[in-house]
Amino acid sequence: MNLAVVLVSPKTPGNIGSAARAMLNMGASDLRIVAPRCDHLDSQAVAMAVHAADLLRGARIYSTLREALADRDLSVGTSARLRADLPAPRHPALVRPLVRQAAAPALVFGPEETGLINSDLEQCQVTVRIPTGDYASLNLAQAVLLVCYEFLQGQDEPAPVTRKTATREEMEAMYGHLQETMHLIGYTDAVRARHTLRLWRAMLDRALMSSAESRLFRGFLRQVKWKVDDAAGRGTEAGPDRETRTTEAGEV
Ligand code: SAH
A single Gene Ontology molecular function, please (predicted)? Predict the structure, then answer.
């Protein structure tokens, strides 16, 4: 499985090295680091990686999570905590079928002290939480080990049919377009936009759209903009009784 592990803003070289080792142990090799706060090739990191030093050297560095996820078709966030305003994290075993059917999944891990922030988790279609005792915050590399273990098991079982899902970049561009359209038609405002879009993202992410479906949706958004601009140009309100673009274009 082409599974990427994304570490968001890790602070401790030893944790990055240990995470690389955990990946190699479990059979993952694509390490991505977003805005690191230390040198991921520090001697401490290389020492903790042991035989995974090459994997560590091959890590790719990104400045934003969005860039790190651009080519992925599924992003799974991880969190030690429940967040009041986000969907509850799920047990990793329940998410395994979704990951096994993805062509290019990513697992996203947060900084040691704070974990992922809400805007990071919003870029993940689903969040998992490893069940623990009362002290839920695992060491970063140990969390990488357990989540990779969960998702990389059963590789010898018959391969599931891989889904063809839009990349995260296509979905993020679609959400940007949706937000612009919401503002354009006054569906939301600057204060409520974040919450509104979060609800729409959750709904549309569940649909696991294909690239073609994301383009279909954006075609609809383009038509909404065209209609609003056209109505504004005529000094009228866009309404259901107006003629369609096709008819009007044909009349010109
Ligand atoms: N104090 C932070 C924990 C940071 S631990 C918090 O409360 O969220 C660093 C990272 O390890 C987390 O961002 C998450 O990616 C992972 N992690 C730690 N404990 C986890 C758990 N129980 N389940 C899933 N991921 C966990």
Answer: methyltransferase activity
